[in-house]
Predict the structure.
Amino acid sequence: MNQLPTDGKCQRCHKDTNCTSMSRFNTQMCCSDCLDLEKKHPKYHVAETLELDAIKQGRYNFKGIGLPSGYTKWACVRQTR
Ligand SMILES: [Zn+2]
């Protein structure tokens, strides 16, 4: 299910980027701006911990905990600062 970007766009903010990696919250390929931003979310450490646990258990296809509810709105407020 991992979809690598073929159009050179971030799957979260849809900006042109040539540098994407997978989000910790889900399987979106995001630009470095979006990834830096999600690290500031209060649930980020939860997503990180659960992902590391899954990997320890051999569940390499762990898809993340999903974007926290209201994430887009939260990100929007952060980005305009
Ligand atoms: Zn982005």
Observations:
- The pocket of zinc ion is lined by residues 10, 12-13, 15, 30-31, 33-34 (CB under 6 Å).
- The chain is about 35% helix and 5% strand.
- The longest strand covers residues 20-22.
